[in-house]
């Protein structure tokens, strides 16, 4: 191997580690030009191209590496994840099985296999693979929210489970409601998030889309959150149809037998628990979004284009079951299928909350499992998946000015300035 190719391989690997994927692609592409038989460079190039969204190019790089002898369990798992992104789940499942034949306790390969089988509607196989994934101990020091055993237990795909879920929308949340029939953006949060982000979200909507409606739902409001919402109402008067509902919930009643349910698990579900009642009250489509998002431009042309759809959701990564439909942005239409989707997600979340078995990512899981269930029923007229590079920015590695040009909504979390 030439000294230049070796240096490019090291530089490309370093760029990949720091998530500078464009630089990694450039360095590694040059390395394989210089030494076509450099298998590790092809492998790393596949990873870098996958990260940039060049899926065909990533597969070509992985296949070149395989032709040069690459094929360990981590390689097979990564290639199978790429095949899932390419919407080739049958081939992905075989790739995960190949990885598991070489590393039977690979948590990532079991999770990937379960995701692929779920996409193939192999419910029994997917459930078994998810449970096997949940039975593998996580690494020491892992995030306590990511209790894989608890998460695996709440991934339910069988149609009998859905048939037993309650479908009662329940009473509409108490508070003020937006008038008219303008597009409706909906967010829910605890009092702390409402205090921190409500003014930014409402202010940006008022500036970008005057006349649009925003409905906020606040769980366990405080004097501070009420004062901030009052300020928001005053500031946006005449520019935004601003509505607020509230709920007071004793989170202790959801405590699990093996430890406390983190409050944010309930808060992440609160929007979907309230959604069926809001749909029944508003009788118009609702865009559900995180409260820490803000639009970079008027979203109404996009919402108008979605008007005929039953539902849709943003995507983070297709090869992760819990993030296949991302809860940061979910569109629910006022159609039979849209209302059934909302009821299914709410019932799914409520089941595990009431059983004191709820764990982190419950809202994400409920979205994906409900979507697969309704797809098996043939219920969808139109379910749309929003591409991650056009809808929603939440990656700190993207400069803010570039994010504002590329994305419809950007994250306001942490220190990102208002847009």
Walkthrough of the structure:
It is a single chain. It is built from 17 helices and eleven strands. By secondary structure, the chain is an alpha/beta fold. The strands form two sheets. The protein has an eight-stranded mixed beta sheet with strand order 1-4-3-2-5-8-7-9, with helices on both faces. Helix 5 runs parallel beside helix 7, helix 7 (107-119) packs antiparallel against helix 8 (123-134) and helix 15 (336-354) packs across helix 16. Residues 415-419 have low confidence and may be disordered.
Q: Using only CA atoms, what is the Rg?
A: 23 Å
Question: Helix-strand pattern, N to C?
Answer: HHHHHHHHHHEEHEHEHEEHEEHHEEHE
DSSP summary, beta strand count: 11
Instruction: Return residue spans where pLDDT drops below 50 for at least 5 consecutive residues.
Output: 415-419
Q: Which sheet architecture does the biggest sheet show?
A: 8 strands, mixed
- What is the arithmetic mean of pLDDT? 91
Total DSSP helices? 17
Structural class: alpha/beta
Distance between the amino and carboxyl termini: 49 Å
Strand order of the largest sheet: 1-4-3-2-5-8-7-9
> Roughly what fraction of the amino acids lie in strands?
5-15%
Helix content: 40-55%
Shape: globular
């Amino acid at each position: 191997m030439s000294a230049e190719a070796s240096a490019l391989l090291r530089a490309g690997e370093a760029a990949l580690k720091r998530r500078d994927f464009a630089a990694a692609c450039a360095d590694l592409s040059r390395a394989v030009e210089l030494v076509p038989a450099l298998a590790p460079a092809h492998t790393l190039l596949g990873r870098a191209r996958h990260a940039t969204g060049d899926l065909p190019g990533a597969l070509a790089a992985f296949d070149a590496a395989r032709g040069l002898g690459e094929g360990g369990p981590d390689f097979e798992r990564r290639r199978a994840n790429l095949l899932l992104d390419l919407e080739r789940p049958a081939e992905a499942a075989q790739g995960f099985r190949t990885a598991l034949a070489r590393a039977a306790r690979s948590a990532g390969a079991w999770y990937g296999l379960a995701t692929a089988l779920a996409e193939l509607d192999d419910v029994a196989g997917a459930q078994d693979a998810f449970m096997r994934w949940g039975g593998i101990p996580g690494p020491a020091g892992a995030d306590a929210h990511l209790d894989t055993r608890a998460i695996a237990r709440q991934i339910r795909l069988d149609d009998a489970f859905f048939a037993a879920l309650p479908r009662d929308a329940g009473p509409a949340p108490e508070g003020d409601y937006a008038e008219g029939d303008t597009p409706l953006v909906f967010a829910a949060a605890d009092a702390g998030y409402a205090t921190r982000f409500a003014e930014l979200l409402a202010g940006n909507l008022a500036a970008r889309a005057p006349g649009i409606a925003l409905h906020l739902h606040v769980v366990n409001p405080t004097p501070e959150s009420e004062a901030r919402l009052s300020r928001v109402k005053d500031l946006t008067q005449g520019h935004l149809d601003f509505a607020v509902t509230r709920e007071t919930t004793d989170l202790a009643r959801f405590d699990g037998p093996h430890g406390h349910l983190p409050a944010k698990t309930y808060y992440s579900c609160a929007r979907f628990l309230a959604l069926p009642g809001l749909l029944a009250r508003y009788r118009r489509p609702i865009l559900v979004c995180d409260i820490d998002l803000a639009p970079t431009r008027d979203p109404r042309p996009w919402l108008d284009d979605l008007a005929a759809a039953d539902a849709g959701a943003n995507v983070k990564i297709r090869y992760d079951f819990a993030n296949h439909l991302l809860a940061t942005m979910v569109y629910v239409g006022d159609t039979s299928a849209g209302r059934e989707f909302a009821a299914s997600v709410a019932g799914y979340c409520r089941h595990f909350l009431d059983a004191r078995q709820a764990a982190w990512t419950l809202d994400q899981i409920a979205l994906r499992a409900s979507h697969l269930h309704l797809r098996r029923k043939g219920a969808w007229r139109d379910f749309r998946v929003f591409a991650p590079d056009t809808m929603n920015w939440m990656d700190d590695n993207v400069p803010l000015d570039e994010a504002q040009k590329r994305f419809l909504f950007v994250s306001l979390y942490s220190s990102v300035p208002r847009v």
